[in-house]
Amino acid sequence: MGNSTNRVIVTGAMGQIGSELTPRLRAIYGKDNVLATDIKQPESEHEGPYEVLDVLDREKMESMLKDYEIDTIYHLAAILSATGERNPDLAWRINVNGLHNVLDLAKEHGYRIFNPSSIAAFGPGAPRDNTPQNTIMKPTTIYGVTKVVGELIGNYYFAKYGVDVRGARLPGIISNVAPPGGGTTDYAVEIFYEAIKNKRYTCFLNADTMLPMMYMPDCLKAFIDLMNADLDSLIHHCDFNLAAISFSPIELAKEIRNHIPEFEIVYEPDYRQQIADSWPMSIDDSAARDEWGWSPDYDLPAMVEDMIRVLSERHRKGTL
Prior knowledge:
Blueprint: E1 8-11, H1 18-29, E2 34-38, E3 50-52, H2 58-67, E4 72-75, H3 81-86, H4 88-109, E5 112-114, E6 117-118, H5 142-161, E7 165-166, E8 168-170, E9 172-174, H6 187-198, E10 200-203, E11 211-215, H7 216-228, E12 240-241, E13 245-247, H8 249-257, E14 264-267, H9 272-277, H10 286-292, H11 300-316
Parallel strand pairs: 1-2, 1-4, 2-3, 4-5, 5-7, 6-8, 8-12, 9-11, 10-14
Antiparallel strand pairs: 11-13
Helix pairs in contact: 4-5, 6-8, 6-11
């Protein structure tokens, strides 16, 4: 974001990523300089400005951006993969029309945008092992389709109008703050809650389903590092492959047993298995490493140890 940036808005601020990105940005820019927005009222008091915003309401968004003198938009409002399959029309409206509103306003007023993409943008035609930066993009979920559209329209707005819009294809994000939000990789969050509370988890994917994942601290670092990168150093813009750790449910369960030996897991795959089988197993993120110095901090043992430490402490306090 460079040193000139100091007025930020986060859409979807109450989602899995937004609920952690917002305080991180407030720590950097000051709590009054980061406006959190979401479609509903927050359940608890926000440490800074909060507004209810539907990203489909272009007029309200425009006046809000003006009132708060915003210069940078972290556009996280989206319908995720599993939820999107149950309501494809809603997924299209929020993920495509909402982004279009943001891009149009940026074109008119010069805002900088971060718009995350996803490994869901790949489909069955892409190589699943070490999926390349540039490959076939034929997703079979509406979520994946909307993410490909987002990448393409973002790159178009950069090329045609000079809008500084950036984004990365996120793997599954593992967090110990917000509960899972309807994604296919959510087993990797749910498993920790169940391991700590009940010592048992029923997984909705097969034991050997390998998927790319990332711990939330690395995700936040990636967003901020990409937005801080010099525009001239970027060859890509809205579609950086991003990788950290790839593992299967059986590997994750084994690592959890190092901390909770009595933990048991059973496998009952549902409709999400088909979604997972269309996604990459591992990702080639050399473009992100080369163009803006991306490098994750957490491997599987470090992530599991930290998740169990934080969630166990909350369980002891009765807040899990």
